[in-house]
Design brief:
Layout: H1 3-20, H2 25-45, H3 50-67, H4 80-98, H5 100-103, H6 117-120, H7 123-146, H8 152-162, H9 167-174, H10 178-203
């Protein structure tokens, strides 16, 4: 294992050991901060409403608190995120069974082949949803983490790029030169990409 791999392994083990300590409130607050919206997004992708998705978040966080001791990090067997995905999928299915009468007539839970997505969705389908959400979630989380270090015009420049605006449109809207638009974009990318990499390593 190279030095970067050893560092990554130590980071992951340290994070999980902190989370396994139920008395470590700081580590638990970090866990909730990093994973709450990710769990919520998975639930929403499975067509749960806003309130139901929030309920799933609470159930998964509670289950994670109680069951985290069962997860032992092994880079060859799987990532922590995979374990969390399985917990989330199980909680969503359990939640559906407990509230089946309320959900059974809602057509948006039906797939094209007539299956009920909350009751019959398969493990690979849940994993696919979770992976797609992760690839979307991490860059947004990274931007949230670093955005406060940039001035307002730089933040607005990047957010307009995300909205699909052209450099010319951004320059006109903000009253800055097109060259300044590119300067803002490049400065943000220089800080954003390492933060995305850090999150992917530390969060699994």
């Amino acid at each position: 294992m190279d030095m970067e791999g050893k560092s990554t392994y130590r980071t992951r083990v340290t994070l999980l050991q902190k989370l396994k300590d139920s008395h470590n409130d700081v580590a638990w607050a970090d866990f909730a901060y990093y994973y709450r919206n990710y769990i919520f997004n998975i639930a929403r992708r499975m067509n749960l409403g806003h309130d139901d998705a929030n309920e799933i978040v609470q159930l998964v966080l509670l289950k994670s608190w109680n069951k985290l001791g069962e997860f032992n990090y092994d880079s060859e067997k799987g990532r922590f995120r995979g374990w969390l995905c399985r917990v989330t999928g199980n909680e969503i299915r359990n939640y559906y069974r407990d509230h089946k009468k309320r959900f059974v007539s809602i057509e948006e839970f039906k797939t094209e082949d007539g299956r009920n997505t909350l009751e019959q969705i398969t493990e690979p389908e849940i994993e696919k949803i979770a992976e797609e959400e992760w690839e979307d979630y991490v860059p947004k989380l990274a931007w949230k983490n670093i955005s406060g270090s940039f001035e307002d015009n730089a933040r607005r420049t990047y957010e307009m790029f995300l909205e699909g605006k052209t450099p010319e449109e951004i320059a006109g809207k903000l009253g800055i030169s097109k060259n300044t638009v590119y300067v803002h974009k490049n400065r943000i990318r220089e800080k954003l990409l390492p933060e995305i990499k850090r999150l992917k390593i530390e969060l699994g």
